[in-house]
């Protein structure tokens, strides 16, 4: 398969890059100085694109690659791929569901604990040498807090299962009610926000869910409420969230994703009620290897005319 | 003239209402003094007097039957000797290592603690610290706040929690709360305790060293006693291994801190999440430079909810005592 051209959209994983290089003719898109010339030169040899949460295959790229057969995403989110265009052109699309579910859910709970119990702030406090007895700073209890989940898919359910072990009552909003679960359903995100202490974004990013957490939702969540985002930056109206945090109209936030990664609003850097992470939801050695193997497995299956492992389209 | 200790606000001192001695105010009292107002007792606040403690006790505490203590005001044989009428020691903490239990037992002095009300918060903090260390939450947060993400790109990968074997040291109310939470993440829970717990569905290890051999992480949840002092020693840490993580929400002295620092600095264990230290508020300087440790200033149980529940329990124990009713949370020898 060495003659098959694979375009990797951006750096994402050294092991994956290495393996793609071994098995195919790998083109590293981020190293190309003149992208349009490159595409004109190589458009007939590139049959696969490997993307991730940062970069995938938009309509423009798809049009520029007439021999494109498959887009394999090193992520479960598909928001960087023009799915309609792929369907139209018969291009297959795969992602990496399930293997990263637990890591992302673990991180969501980790963020909740870090925000409510001020773990990062405590760590800063000790490192600064400021710890003196008598400086009793109370944090907020996590056990028993009401957790509201936007999107009760694989990741949402995994978050619910973990939060239940902390005796957190679970409620959710989804496109449709999941009657097979015992959790409380709210038909709108505003109602969900008004009735929980911690609101978690765990749905996929689509046209409909862009800015699903807006000013109204933030107001409903309120001055004691905490927002956790392990979905996509554009799920949240970021300027609204920033001003709510700065003005203390919302209790705190744990954010793994931002609207314009890797840019993070600097107004957040001085706040002690936020935890800011550089998109590490699936960022463990174990999971990234499993994701890479899934990408490789899907590509291999496709080029050997076998059934795809985790097809989306 | 030495100053009289102040009485409860808005109340005339009444000879009938018995005193509860407080040598130094526990955080609970400082933050929630309003909750300690009772018709059944009044506080005798030794720290408000200009007299040195020894003299204060001799002068004013001869008929005191109950004392409210905490880590800052330990109940030593010397103190007990100065309180000839003492019948009850109430501590505002779950920990009891600051009370000479042998002496209390010998003299028939009852002891109550605040076990149970702090278990959830302590367990939450322990799990939070474990996730933080494995997933590098505090260090990644520092990375972002220092504006390093745009320049440096992807942050180093952490390690998955779910496939870890977690050894719980001490399966009391805090340890079992930790176990319950970790099960939901898919962790394999193992434990060491003085004796196996018949209700526990987890494999029991009769000593900490063997537990460490079989574990990827240790969570210290036991009390500090003569037996557990420095129980987590170099041998245990080396057995835990280079990827091993230690989380301590119990007492600093259960771990040989000097050895732990050496192990961390030389990469003989993988990381640590520490809420307690041997000489608080002193923290070994070398720890402040490490990225694979998460440090917390002994606040694993510092939540308003936990504190208010502890206040209620302390007051309830004191009121029960003065009404000759059964104590709510007396220490039972296990």
Automatic annotation (TrEMBL), chain A:
Where is each D-isomer specific 2-hydroxyacid dehydrogenase catalytic domain found?
12-312
Give residue ranges for domain D-isomer specific 2-hydroxyacid dehydrogenase NAD-binding. 109-281
The residues that cross the membrane are: none
Q: Family per UniProt?
A: Belongs to the D-isomer specific 2-hydroxyacid dehydrogenase family.
Question: What UniProt keywords apply to this chain's record, in alphabetical order?
Answer: NAD, Oxidoreductase
Top-level taxon of origin: Eukaryota
Record's CDD domains?
HPPR
Q: What is this protein called?
A: Hydroxyphenylpyruvate reductase
Please report the organism this UniProt entry assigns to the protein: Hibiscus sabdariffa (roselle)
Q: Which SUPFAM superfamilies match?
A: Formate/glycerate dehydrogenase catalytic domain-like (SSF52283), NAD(P)-binding Rossmann-fold domains (SSF51735)
Automatic annotation (TrEMBL), chain B:
The answer to whether the entry has keyword GTP-binding is no
Keyword hit for Transport: no
User: What are the record keywords, sorted?
Assistant: Oxidoreductase
Report domain D-isomer specific 2-hydroxyacid dehydrogenase NAD-binding positions. 127-300
Domain (D-isomer specific 2-hydroxyacid dehydrogenase catalytic): give its ranges.
Answer: 57-329
Read off the InterPro entries from this record: D-isomer_2-hydroxyacid_DH (IPR050223), D-isomer_2_OHA_DH_cat_dom (IPR006139), D-isomer_DH_NAD-bd (IPR006140), NAD(P)-bd_dom_sf (IPR036291)
Q: Which domain of life is it from?
A: Eukaryota
* A Pfam family this chain is assigned to: 2-Hacid_dh_C
The Swiss-Prot or TrEMBL record describes its family as follows: Belongs to the D-isomer specific 2-hydroxyacid dehydrogenase family.
Task: State what protein this is by name.
Answer: Glyoxylate/hydroxypyruvate reductase HPR3-like
């Amino acid at each position: 398969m060495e003659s098959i051209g694979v375009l990797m959209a951006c750096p994402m994983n050294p092991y994956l890059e290495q393996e793609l290089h071994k098995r195919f003719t790998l083109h590293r898109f981020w190293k190309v100085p003149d992208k349009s010339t490159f595409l004109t030169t190589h458009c007939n040899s590139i049959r696969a694109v490997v993307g991730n949460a940062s970069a995938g295959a938009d309509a423009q790229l798809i049009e520029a690659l007439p021999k494109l057969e498959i887009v394999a995403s090193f992520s479960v989110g598909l928001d960087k791929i023009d799915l309609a265009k792929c369907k139209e052109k018969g291009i297959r699309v795969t992602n990496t569901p399930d293997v990263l579910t637990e890591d992302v859910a673990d991180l969501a709970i980790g963020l909740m604990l870090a925000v409510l119990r001020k773990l990062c702030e405590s760590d800063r406090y000790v490192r600064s040498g400021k710890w003196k007895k008598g400086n009793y700073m109370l944090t907020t209890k996590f056990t028993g807090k009401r957790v509201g989940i936007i999107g009760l898919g694989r990741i949402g359910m995994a978050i619910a299962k973990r939060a239940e072990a902390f005796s957190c009552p679970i409620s959710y909003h989804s496109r449709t009610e999941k009657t097979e679960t015992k959790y409380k359903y709210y038909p709108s995100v505003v109602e969900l926000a008004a009735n929980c202490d911690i609101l978690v974004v765990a749905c996929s990013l689509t046209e409909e869910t862009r800015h699903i957490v807006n000013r109204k939702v933030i107001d409903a969540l309120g001055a004691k409420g905490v927002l956790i985002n392990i979905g996509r930056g554009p799920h949240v109206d970021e300027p609204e969230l920033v001003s709510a945090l700065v003005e203390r109209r919302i209790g705190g936030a744990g954010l793994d994703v931002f609207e314009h990664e890797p840019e993070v609003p600097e107004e957040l850097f001085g706040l002690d009620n936020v935890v800011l992470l550089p998109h590490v939801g699936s960022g463990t050695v174990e999971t990234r290897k499993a994701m890479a193997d899934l990408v490789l497995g899907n590509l291999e299956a496709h080029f050997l005319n076998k059934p795809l492992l985790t097809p989306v389209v | 003239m030495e100053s009289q200790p102040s009485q409860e606000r808005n109340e005339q001192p009444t000879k009938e209402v018995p005193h509860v001695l407080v040598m130094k105010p526990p955080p609970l009292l400082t933050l929630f003094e309003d909750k300690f107002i009772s018709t059944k007792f009044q506080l005798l606040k030794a720290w408000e007097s200009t007299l040195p403690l020894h003299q204060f006790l001799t002068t004013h505490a001869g008929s005191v039957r109950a004392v409210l203590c905490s880590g800052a005001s330990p109940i030593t044989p010397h103190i007990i000797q100065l309180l000839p009428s003492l019948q009850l020691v109430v501590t505002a903490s779950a920990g009891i290592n600051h009370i000479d239990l042998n002496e209390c037992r010998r003299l028939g002095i009852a002891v109550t603690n605040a076990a149970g009300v702090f278990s959830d918060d302590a367990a939450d903090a322990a799990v939070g610290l474990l996730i933080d260390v494995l997933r590098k939450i505090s260090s990644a947060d520092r990375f972002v706040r220092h504006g390093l993400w745009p320049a440096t790109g992807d942050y180093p990968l952490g390690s998955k929690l779910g496939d870890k074997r977690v050894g719980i040291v001490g399966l009391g109310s805090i340890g079992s709360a930790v176990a319950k939470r970790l099960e939901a993440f898919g962790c394999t829970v193992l434990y060491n305790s003085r004796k196996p717990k018949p209700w526990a569905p987890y494999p029991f290890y009769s000593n900490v060293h063997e537990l460490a051999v079989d574990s990827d992480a240790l969570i210290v949840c036991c009390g500090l006693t003569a037996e557990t002092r420095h129980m987590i020693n170099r041998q245990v840490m080396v057995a835990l291994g280079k990827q091993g993580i230690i989380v301590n929400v119990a007492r600093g002295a259960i771990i040989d801190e000097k050895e732990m620092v050496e192990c961390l600095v030389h990469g003989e264990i993988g990381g640590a999440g520490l809420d307690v230290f041997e000489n608080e508020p002193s923290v070994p300087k070398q720890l402040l430079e490490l990225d694979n440790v998460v440090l917390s200033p002994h606040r694993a149980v510092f939540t308003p909810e936990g504190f208010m529940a502890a206040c209620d329990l302390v007051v309830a124990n004191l009121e029960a005592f003065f009404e000759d009713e059964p104590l709510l949370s007396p220490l039972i020898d296990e």
